[in-house]
Queue: 4 jobs
Job 1
Amino acid sequence: MREEALISLFSAFDKIVGSKRDCEYYPCHFEGQDCTFCYCPFYPCLLYRLGGEIVKSSSGDYVWSCKNCRWIHERENVEEILDYFSSFPRQLIAEGDWYFFNRALQNVLFGFELGEEVNGVYNLMPANFYKLECVETDKTDFLAIKIKDFNIESIRRIRSVEDAISGEILIPEKSNGILRGIYKNRFVECKL
């Protein structure tokens, strides 16, 4: 899947696909979608605001489901993504790891990186909570995720950033449209 994502990205530098109505899966997200990124270069983005979420696959593994993501299939976003990556050598893009692509996504979405690395742990909660309506709450669980080769290798529920292990990525826990975790050193619930 990673190889297909890079092929989509590199092909898009030559030509934006637009709607691919002859595809047997069209529309896989919505009518009129831009199909340039059939395979998303940011997968798994771990940003709930784009419509994705963690689900258990039929094999019992956890995956990031993008079925409700529209963002990557909107023409103006395709153009912004291509504009962003056009300044990078293709070799650097081809060798980019999950962190490279997630930081790129944050730069495209927000204009800067909101995630922060502390003691080998990448805290992606600020990017998930950014500009959401949040209220302070009692201590709550959130998720520590390990990514290997652009796939979710493991997920743990933790209650403190100090419980995270080097190499993990911290994201909020999601339930019924509410994100729970730590933001600006306080426990919060935020409406998605």
Job 2
Amino acid sequence: MTFALELRGASRVYGNYVALHPIDLSVNTGKFLAILRPSGSGKTTLLRLVSGFVAPSAGTIILDGVNITTLPIFARQCNTVFQDYALFPHLCVTDNIAYGLSVRRRSKAEVAKKVRDIIATVGLSEFARRNPSQLSGGQG
């Protein structure tokens, strides 16, 4: 079976400190996953591994059936939404979302459709032209 995301024994160690103990995780396509654990348990490290900000010390990361373990950040078809988000303050919601797709040189039509779909999915259609400073914490 192919999962949208699969981690096989993925871990991260910094010297003697284990930031993420080996984890096996499979997420089906179309599913939403929330990771709730105490501070220091490895949640952010896990996200950083999947996104490519850090490499795993061991294990494999598979996205849509493709081993992305050694792919650089820009070559991965995934993203991370940070707790303390980093949005372009001068761009509206639509343009912030479109930025990554535009950098990947997607057609204007594809970017427009994906942005509309994303905004609708997260329930921000009525706020699409607002800048980050015009959103509440839960919206940004």
Job 3
Amino acid sequence: MDTSGSTTDVEHLSWSQASALAQFHPGLEKPFFARRAEPTRAAPTEVLFGPFRLLPTQFLLLEGDKPVHLGSRALEILIVLLERPGELVSMKQLMDRVWPNIFVEPANLTVQISALRRVLRDGRDGNRFIINVPRRGYCFVASIEVSRHEDRAQLTRAQA
């Protein structure tokens, strides 16, 4: 349980909610959804998923080499979800991050998620990126590839 009193463990999901998450990651056990302690790493320089490339430090989403027109709130939601792929991110956590110190109705989150899904063509042409667990939150379910500054530096040294 986090400090806000909400839980994000899959153990607290109903069977149908856990099944909805599991269908996108078959064979994964509960620990996948649990918060993992990782050593401190350099911030990702880019995150690749489907035909998209997110450059979080530049606050930019590209499809191929073309910038994708996406509002700042929807882009912030995408960044939060990509920071925790495969994990359920509660609606409260998303709203606290995207609208800090501002009260907004949950409908604002729904509108931004819809805009994000529309731009990503989520649910069309075999693309599936974001699922929701009703009244709980959202989960980024697609495979991602993360590139970090340290990865590039090691690659550059290895090529030299």
Job 4
Amino acid sequence: MPHLDRLESVEMAARHVALLRAVNLGKRNKVPMAELRRVFEDAGYDSVQTYIQSGNVVFEHAAPDAAALEAAVADAFGVRTTIVLRTARQMRKLAGAHPFGEDTSQSFVAFLAGKPAKPALRALSELDVTPDRWELIGPDVAMHFPNGYAGARLSAAVLEKQLGVQATARNWRTVGRLVDLL
């Protein structure tokens, strides 16, 4: 029966988060969230939700494809972006592993689009970014900026340059909210 096939595919689908890099920054790379939800739905993704305007999408799918989603976003909006995918499990693990004490107000996460080479990680560890701190948690980099994001010496751009992979940053509050939506 066709409806049983649909039920089985939904049961096999897992919750994920898609994090779009560098969208809705001022007047550049405009991606309206309601339309972004439609793009995901048209691509076959279920239970699609967005959170704030910075390109955070929570959805269900058995095997999401970042490259296909990037192409769909480019087609729909004329915006070339990198999409970083994380499973619900990865997000929960990250949220539960805040390494910088109880206060998360100055904490951020750089979600890496690829795995950095070990020599690049070593070079990053030798970089003096004091008073900022960072720690690799799974595939992502948790960062603490005691002087705030604007005064940070270690930013997503610095990470990208040092590690040789693209990244998109979110504050810890956003990470927690995405986990709540999962």
